[in-house]
Design goal:
The chain has 51 residues and is mainly β. It contains no helices and four strands. A hairpin with a 5-residue loop joins strand 2 and strand 3. The mean pLDDT is 94.
Amino acid sequence: MLLRGTQVVEDADGVQHTTTRPVSALCRCHRSATKPWCDGTHKLLPDKLRP
């Protein structure tokens, strides 16, 4: 999922994450080192584990 402009995302634990980038991507593979943001880790996963 892509977010545009300044956004605040609240995770399941109630922690708020803010981004001010023009475009930000949320992680869907659950393996990002920068959760909740996508860091491209999904590109390294085998096809069957990709979102």
